[in-house]
Amino acid sequence: MNRGSDTELSAFISRYHMKSPLPHAAQMATTLATVMCAALVSYAAITLSASSAAAQSAKPRGTLLIVGGGTQPHDLVVHFVGLAGGPGHAHIAILPMASEESAESGAEKKAELDSLGADSFVIDVTRQQADADSIVKLLKTATGIWFPGGDQVRLAAHLQGSAALREIHSRYQAGAVVGGTSAGAAVMSDSMLTGNQFFPGMTESADSGNTPKRIGRHVIEIVPGFGFLHGAIVDQHFITRARANRLFSVVMERPSLIGVGINEGTALQVNPDGNWQILGASAVIVFDARHAAVTPRDAPLLGAFGMNVSVLPAGSTFDPRSGKATLPSGG
Fold first, then answer.
1. Which of 154, 160, 162, 157 is nearest to 136 (CA)?
2. Sign of the CA dihedral 154, 160, 164, 165?
3. Are strands 283-288 and 258-262 parallel, antiparallel or unpaired?
4. Looking at the DSSP assignment, which residues form a beta bridge with residue 169?
5. Which residue ranges of the chain lie beneath pLDDT 50?
6. pLDDT score of 202
7. pLDDT at 181
8. Who is most buried in 2, 108, 208, 214, counting CB within 10 A?
């Protein structure tokens, strides 16, 4: 984190040392006034710098609920409504643009959430509309935001860099829950898997299918995500579609990122304190190469020794700062 440097008062005194032939009293008064002004400027600069640093270091008050696709257990949906304020209080924005049938996707999710006592509304916008003041104003009322599934690249094209996405970040900072499934899960991290890979002899990426068959350097396509989850990258449908090869490649090329493979019907909950919880029907597999020995960047082959791989069923917790996990009782 960047912090503002303190300005030393002695530098101001030296800079404004008086050499003019004023009478001693006038000279002293002028010097004192100059130093006082300089001190006030210095104090203001330090205060602004501290305020800026505090704003950057402020932890979000909201929660992330990142679901790995597939059928969501009823309890997970109820839990999401509870995180958004509960029946009669949850005001949830649904952004279904990942789907080619976005109207149907949004209406289906709205019906489900409303049946649990939420007041939900659909925001189905183009990239240009995502900058509209009316959309931002509507999002300001949300206690929860939900991204249904589809194609994460399509969803990113509708929202990346928009006023709407900035407002969603503001809502998350203020305490709203932000959730999504499948494509809506993939967009959550700073870096995002597109689902494409680079095949030998090809300069353009192509759909990798459900089971990427290669582990290697420059294989998996990564683009910027929405940036709610830092220091990690999310994959979904993970166990069901045997996607381990994809995250092995990604975390060995980018060992500063924790790979998070979330299976269907399962959620990774990121709490305001930064700790992770596993909820739902299956498991999350965590790939952590931050302290591993990895082949050099210029090496033709990609490999690692000492990577930690954790299989975390529902009820587990994980601290991404320490890399420590707890398993459910009896686990």
1. 162
2. positive
3. antiparallel
4. none
5. 1-57, 331
6. 65
7. 98
8. 208
Residue type, 72: Q
Please answer whether residues 136 and 205 qualify as being in contact, where contact means their C-beta atoms are separated by less than 8 angstroms. Answer: no
Distance CA 26, CA 113 (A): 75
**Would you kindly state where each structural domain of the chain is located, as residue ranges?**
9-57, 63-326
Q: Which fold has domain 63-326?
A: Rossmann fold (3.40.50)
Q: Which two tokens stand for residue 192?
A: 């995002």
For residue 23, what are the contacts with CB-CB under 8 A and spacing of at least 6?
A: none
pLDDT at 213: 72
Nearest CA to 186 out of 174, 196, 175 is that of 196
Q: Which two tokens stand for residue 207?
A: 């759909």
List the one residue out of 254, 210, 207 whose CA is nearest residue 236.
Answer: 210
The β-bridge partners of 267 are 67, 279
Helix axes 102-115, 74-83, angle to 10 degrees: 80
SS3 21: coil
Kindly report whether the global pTM for this prediction surpasses the value 0.70.
yes
CA atoms within 13 A on the CB side of 188: 37
196 neighbors 135 (Cβ within 8 angstroms) = no
